[in-house]
Amino acid sequence: MKHELFPDVYAGGIWEVDYDALFDRGIRGIILDVDNTIVPYFVPDPDVRSVAGIHRLQKQGFSLYIVSNGKESRVRRFNQGLGLPFICHAGKPTAKGFVQAMRDMQLPPEQIAVIGDQIFTDVWGGNRLGMYTILVKQVSRRDEWITAIKRPLEKIVMLAYRLYVKKQKQVAA
Ligand SMILES: [Mg+2]
Is 128 among the domain residues? Predict the structure, then answer.
């Protein structure tokens, strides 16, 4: 059994995720984290590549939803040119924000993917609701202090995760 802290997929970045594969497995909604997933926490606006990527995903048929633990002013500013539905102060990993996004998208959890850079907020929260979780490498090495204190623990979980993935591959072979 996959541990509740393990992502379903690990990707080198949000634009390295195989979205065709996600669509093929029935995913129709994507919950996006912002800070250090799309841009560093200290960058106020999305970059050109992210804007294009987000539009491409919408064209592909995905519903997108921002679920962030960030402040309203931060998320609102970031989302200005994107116009996505969003939840700020989401309190991830609690269910609150995820459940609201799920209700608004009118999709069951099995059809929703969560993309984020943190195990103890994005991955854990999504897994507990039965969503498909994608952990991405943080875009910046700089973290807010609240995140920074969790990174050493994440490293331990990632060691266990890599062993798990290795074993799965051996079983499959
Ligand atoms: Mg984040």
Answer: yes
Q: What is the pLDDT of residues 58-117, one digit of tens each?
A: 999 999 999 999 999 999 999 999 999 999 999 999 999 999 999 999 999 999 999 999
Is 1's pLDDT higher than 80? no
Neighbours of ion ligand 1 (CB under 5 A): 33, 35-37, 117
Ligand 1 mean position, distance from CA 169 (Å): 29
Specify if 31 maps to a domain.
yes
Distance 76 CA to ligand 1 centre (A): 16
How many domains does the chain divide into?
1
Say which CATH number the domain at 98 has: 3.40.50.1000
* Structural domain boundaries, residue 54: 9-172
71-78 long-range contacts (CB < 8 A, ≥24 apart) are 74/34, 74/44, 75/34, 77/44, 77/45, 78/34, 78/38, 78/39, 78/44, 78/45, 78/46
Place of tokens 């943080």: 138
